[in-house]
Amino acid sequence: MTMGVGAGAVLLVFLFLQSHYAFNYLYEEQFRMFRFSADYAVAAFSRVGGPVEYVTSFLVQFFAFPYVGAAVFAILFGCVAGGVRCGFLRLSGGKEMPLAYWLPGLFFLWAGADFNNHFEAGLAFLSVVWLFALWERLFPRPNGWKVAVALPVDWGLFYLIGPLALLWALAVVLTVLFRKGAARWWSLLLIPGALLAPLVVYAASWSDAPLSSLLTAAAYSHPMLPNLVWVNGAALVWLAGLGLALLFPLCPKGQRPAVRYVSWSVQTLLAGVLFCQVALRANNERYYVVKVLDYYARHGRWTDLLSVPDFRPSENLLHTCYQNLALANMGKLSEVLLQTPQPGAKGLWVEWNKTAPVSALLSDVAYTMGNVALAQVLAFEGLVGCERSENPRLLVRLVQTNLIQGAYPVAEKYIGLLRQTYAYRQVAEHYAAFLYDDGRVEADAELGPLRRCLSKAEGLTYVALAPTDLLQVMRSNPSYRPAFEYFGAFCLLTKDLVSFRMMLDEFRTAPVLRPLPRLYQEVVVMLFEGESDRWADYGVEEETIKRFADFRKLFMAARRNPAMAGSLRANFGHTYWYYFMHSKK
Fold first, then answer.
1. Helix residue ranges, H only, 406-446
2. Residue 293 vs residues 37, 212, 334: alpha-carbon distances, Å
3. Residue whose C-alpha is closest to residue 110's, from 287, 286, 229, 217
């Protein structure tokens, strides 16, 4: 495998990952927050495995930018393959076996589809394979000196990368046992010696981690969702490759160049096909689409959000919630509500399951509604739901809500944390300009309207009452359109026309209801069907009146002739009249 071949493989992997995995890395960045501070560094380097976690968080912070995540994972793949190859060639006497060094790195590419698998595993494995290659170069013969030095090296490696240090010890034992020499049986003592370090750390309470996380690959995945397949798979493949490499010198020499070329090509092609097949299956399509929607919502790219391939708001409530969030931010929710898939009110406000992703989504919805207190509570809950209680996006939300509420010391604390980051430093500086300046907050296009939503709103922090609490937001700021759009949508989708009429009567002259949205005009016609003289008072237009007359005519005809029901739906399926009579939601 020449340098050119390796670079070409890395490039192909990068292109594939960028095409199919890009949003996995953009999403993963949200669950870490590297800080350029001495306290953060000391906290990391004071625990077992902290150094590799520190380096990992440093790299993952740049995943906030497009292409970086795919590039880092592709380079990791290339470095792992190169390290495995170096060790393999030392043991095999120069004989090649590409499949043995393509496969270990592929496991970590597959693991990248799920942010519950920690990126630390890939960097730790990289450290193991390169240390082993260096070890074989420094100590080519299995003498007693090699075994004696291995134990303190393993302990140092355990501190740096965690339990994968045991994998390095196993590789050393394997290679020493296979060769002749007096040290071969003494090498077996390296295994209990390697296990001694985690046991001492656990017994002395030098780590808060459970024993399983000090001894096994469980350290490299979410503690509540352990997934050991990828790390263990890479370890087994690597050890098996080392075993084959040790057997290769026993094989006949003098293989023809053509045979070597065909073998190399077939193995590389097999690795490529295996990579693509497993990579596509490992990347759960349903979860991936949510990551895409989350990214566009996070950056306010609403048009892109609504154009996401495989976007299914008619089948998935999370998709519907993102759709309605986008429409509300675009000021179109009340206009196109029934022209878009709507599986009832649950598509406006999904059930809260206390997970970080759903908490972040509902915090966005509450913030858009104007319910600042609830947006803040859900941001806190989202942080609690994160594995490391780190999420820069939710910290930004806490900055926003505290500025709006005038809690400047609290906002200043969060701004201080964001200032220590790279990707969010500019955001922190932007919001720092609002500290202790009420006038600037009230004049801001984003924060000002939301502060005016607080004047008559108290204690709006109960998740289940979010739709009802919108009345207080609307009374506080009758000019805030998203609150009206969401309240109207809740009423119409649940067919709560009593509450809808109360809104119309109380806010008939509000600027946000002039002109009255077409859908609302249709409801007014229904509410006062026998009092057409009142339609104009609410802002019903002549076009709506004419359309209602056509609807009634076709509706009566369809009652006499059921075959005309299809025509009624085709012409009026997006009206509230049709929804009210035919929808069972």
1. 408-419, 425-432, 438-443
2. 32, 35, 21
3. 229
Q: Is residue 532 within 8 Å of residue 514, measured between CB atoms?
A: no
Q: Are 28 and 73 in contact (CB under 8 A)?
A: no
pTM: 0.91
Integer Cα distance of 204 and 194 in angstroms: 16
Query: Interhelix angle for 497-506 vs 481-493, to 10°?
Result: 150
What is the DSSP secondary-structure string of 123-181? HHHHHHHHHHHHHHHH--S--HHHHHHHHHHHHHHHHHH-TTHHHHHHHHHHHHHHS-S
Per-residue pLDDT of the chain (585 residues; tens, 9 = 90+): 567 778 888 999 999 999 999 999 999 999 999 999 999 999 999 999 999 999 999 999 999 999 999 999 999 999 999 999 999 988 888 888 888 889 999 999 999 998 889 999 999 999 999 999 998 888 877 666 777 888 899 999 999 999 999 999 999 988 888 776 666 777 788 889 889 999 999 888 888 888 888 888 888 998 887 778 889 999 999 999 998 888 876 555 555 666 667 777 888 888 888 888 888 888 988 899 999 999 999 999 999 999 999 899 988 999 999 999 999 999 999 999 999 999 988 999 999 988 999 999 999 999 999 999 999 999 999 999 898 889 999 999 999 999 999 999 999 999 999 999 999 999 999 999 999 999 999 999 999 999 999 887 776 666 666 777 888 999 999 999 999 999 999 999 999 999 999 999 999 888 899 899 999 999 999 999 888 889 998 999 999 999 999 999 988 887 778 777 788 888 898 999 999 988 776
CA 294: distance to chain centroid? 7
Name the H helices within 29-143.
38-45, 50-60, 68-92, 98-111, 120-138
Single-letter residue type at 33:
M
- 220: nearest Cα among 129, 124, 120: 120
d(CA 318, CA 327): 14
- Provide φ and ψ at 221, rounded to 5°: -150, 170
Report the C-alpha gap between 492 and 486 in whole angstroms. 10
